[in-house]
Amino acid sequence: MSRCLVLVSGGIDSTVLLHKLARERGGGFLTALAFDYGQRHTRELECARWQAEQVGAAFRIVRLDFFGELVREGTALVKGGKEVPDLKDLSDQNRSQPPTYVPNRNMVLLSIAAAAAESMGITEIYYGAQAQDEYGYWDCTPKFVERLNTVLSLNRRQPVTVHAPLVRHSKLDNVRLGLELGVDFSRTWSCYRGALPACGTCPTCVERLNAFSGCGIEDPIPYASSANISRA
């Protein structure tokens, strides 16, 4: 079985992908790569490390402290950036690419991952792009993956291929898959604000709560708001 590199953030999607690959390939064939790029909190990275240990994958954090400072005027997701909005306060137009989008983040992270993979003799990279229900990012789409792979295929010696097998999944789909795989969702993190308990009102909290509600179960992480109900 060939080795592969999987990007992990500590959230639902990348965690489910990690467990899916561990089931299919064996954790010993996985290297889990996380990034500290100046995001508002590191709670998600602690979850990513824990999940990698559970499946027996190698784990590494890449520090990109400069990146958050570079893009903070254009995003709410890094330290010193804009305020994180509640989903209910976003217009339909803003939901197509909300303030929580980080400029070119996935292209940067996947490029670095491709360099790491090539140096390690690995030809496959996986990341947990998912079809958001309430909002969207252009760098989590099938078209983005397709075009990125077109560029990577130009490598004359060892082309690296990026896979996003969950790219057409909803969050509900991923929670269902994670339950089948035995994922401990209490050791995942989604809230953009990063405080404990989670806020329950930012875009990713709403999407997460709706997914668990759609499965008929309660989200195992604590929320500041009282009920696990749709807040869209």
Account of the protein in words:
It is built from eight helices and five strands. It is globular, with a radius of gyration of 17 Å. With 232 residues, it is α/β, with parallel strands linked by helices. The N and C termini lie far apart (43 Å). The chain has a five-stranded parallel beta sheet with strand order 3-2-1-4-5, sandwiched between helices.
**What kind of assembly state do the chains in view correspond to?**
single chain
Integer average pLDDT: 94
The number of helices is: 8
How are the strands of the largest sheet arranged?
3-2-1-4-5
The low-pLDDT segments are 226-232
Order of helices and strands: EHEHEHHHEHEHH
Helix content: 25-40%
Report the β-strand fraction as a percent range: 5-15%
CATH topology: Rossmann fold
Q: N-to-C terminal Cα separation, in Å?
A: 43 Å
How many domains?
1
The value of Rg in angstroms is 17 Å
Task: Summarize the topology.
Elements: E1 4-7, H1 12-25, E2 30-36, H2 43-55, E3 58-63, H3 65-71, H4 92-95, H5 105-120, E4 124-126, H6 142-152, E5 161-163, H7 171-181, H8 203-214
Parallel strand pairs: 1-2, 1-4, 2-3, 4-5
Summary of the model, kept short:
The chain is built from eight helices and five strands; from the N terminus they run E-H-E-H-E-H-H-H-E-H-E-H-H.
Write out key terms for the chains shown:
Rossmann fold, 38% helix, alpha/beta, 10% strand, 232 residues, five-stranded parallel beta sheet
